[in-house]
Design a protein that fits this description.
The protein has 454 residues and is an alpha+beta fold. The chain is built from 14 helices and 11 strands. Strands 4, 5, 6, 7 and 8 form a 5-stranded mixed beta sheet that branches. Strands 1-2 form a two-stranded antiparallel ribbon. A two-stranded antiparallel ribbon has the order 3-9.
């Protein structure tokens, strides 16, 4: 989307407005402003000749033409107003959100004569819950060093349940050990939890920026030893005194404060820092759930027709004096509306393609019980310490005691032990390709005997 930013701005700033002008071009001959100018010139000529303008047949003809002509400038403003009213009901904070209405307080749903019609507000849309797929966030500083926002603890509502009012989860800077430096990289640690004070995310971000810059120690200058402590910052609400693990003694290896304080200004915030910019991006990325429509173009074109017929084209207003202006307005709204819809459709289809894109399989493993594994592979299984440790962790095989009929656990394991425990699950992730190929070659129906692990 960022790569297409220039094209998007060009469409909005330089392409769309000229298209509206072009759509009205064939009405300019009947524009009221041009008719008035012609009438004013004729009036002046007639008055200079001593003739009353209203008595002139030509002046009377221009008056009649003025009644029938189109006020292009007023019509242009009305078109923009109607298009704004139409599209604002389907977008909120830049994302698609259907708020279809027939009239105030009444919803209209698509109906094609079915005996029973089941409909819901987000039909034909994919719901993306961003907070279920947290990822750490990495960014480069002006010097080329890397900093990370690392989430160390998170909890979310399960089964798509909506959060209770006042119990919304926020990204909160860890009160204990908020900063860690490891191998020349800075890790800024956050929790995703309910804020007890009910603060908004923007306020928490501002407090986090101040706290981070306040607790960063100076760069390494000498041979300090051990782990240093940093005084707390009461004004930003970080009450515990953090203890910072760090390399090289009591200070960090570089001036992280200077790096993070580098300005990255915007038109509205000239003092915005690199830290503030990336923290805003990070928290916003996982704070907004959104919808992707399966057929946005078709949906909006149908909605635009519905909108024009019910909110623009009023039958009672169609008289001989206004019908031309009304039809002109409808045609231009539809023409420009379809151009905007085509543009929005491209963006939505791109999002849909990303959402439906099949994940690349970078590694495949298989799990199966020992009773399905050929006995000639048992020696290799016994020799695989990683698989044995996995069985110890999952099945506690080290606690299996033998008796007169079955062997117990031993180190190393024996083939007899494997035969006595045929339902231990073997995972090919612990074995090389040669072993896996031999195992898979022993199955006639791989899907039946050996489900995919990863």
């Amino acid at each position: 989307m960022n790569q297409k930013r220039d094209e998007i701005e060009q469409f909005l700033d330089r392409d769309l407005l000229p298209q509206v002008k072009t759509a009205f071009a064939h009405y300019e001959g009947d524009d009221q402003s041009s008719v008035r100018e012609e009438m004013e010139r004729l009036r002046k000529t007639l008055e200079d000749a001593g003739v009353v303008a209203e008595t002139s047949p030509k002046y009377q003809a221009l008056q009649a033409r003025l009644t029938r002509s189109v006020d292009v400038s007023a019509l242009e403003n009305e078109v923009f107003s109607q298009l704004t009213n139409f599209f604002r009901r389907y977008y909120q904070e830049g994302d698609f959100l259907s708020l279809r209405r027939y009239k105030a307080g009444v919803y209209a749903i698509p109906y094609e004569g079915e005996e029973v019609k089941l409909h819901w507000a987000n039909a034909d849309q994919y719901y993306i819950k961003s907070s279920e797929n947290f990822r750490d966030y990495t960014f480069k500083l002006p010097s080329g060093r890397r900093a990370h926002f690392k989430l160390v603890d998170a909890s979310t509502e399960q089964n798509n349940k909506k959060e209770q009012a006042g119990k919304e989860r926020r990204f909160v800077l860890c009160a204990e050990t908020p900063l860690v430096e490891d191998e020349g990289e800075l890790f800024i640690r956050f929790e995703y939890r309910v804020d007890e004070d009910g603060a908004k995310q923007a306020s928490l971000n501002e407090a986090a920026v101040q706290a981070i810059l306040a607790v960063i120690p100076p760069p390494l200058t000498g041979g300090g030893q051990g782990v240093g402590e940093v005084g707390r910052s009461d004004e930003v609400g970080i009450t515990p005194t953090p203890t910072l693990p760090r390399q090289g003694g009591g200070s960090f290896s570089c001036d992280w404060k200077r790096e993070l304080s580098t300005l990255a200004p915007t038109a509205k915030n000239l003092r915005r820092t690199v830290l503030e910019k990336h923290l805003t991006d990070y928290t916003a990325k996982y704070s907004f759930d959104y919808f992707i429509h399966k057929d946005l173009g078709g949906f909006l074109r149908r909605e635009l027709d519905f909108f024009i017929k019910n909110e623009v084209l009023f039958i009672d207003d169609l008289d001989a004096d206004h019908i031309k202006a009304t039809i002109s307005k409808v045609k231009v709204i539809k023409e420009i509306g379809h151009k905007i819809i085509a543009f929005l459709e491209q963006l939505e289809n791109f999002q849909k393609k990303l959402w439906l894109k099949k994940k690349f399989v970078v590694e495949t493993g298989y799990c199966c019980t020992l009773d399905k594994v050929p006995e000639e592979l048992y020696p290799a299984i016994i020799a695989n310490q990683a698989q044995v440790e996995e069985w110890q962790r999952l099945f506690a095989i080290q606690d299996i005691e033998g008796d007169l009929h079955t062997p117990g656990y031993s180190d190393p394991l024996t083939i007899e032990f494997l035969k006595a425990n045929p339902f231990l699950v073997l995972d090919t992730v612990f074995f090389d390709e040669e072993f896996t190929d031999k195992l898979l070659a022993s199955f006639d129906n791989l899907d039946h005997y050996c489900p995919v692990n990863s």
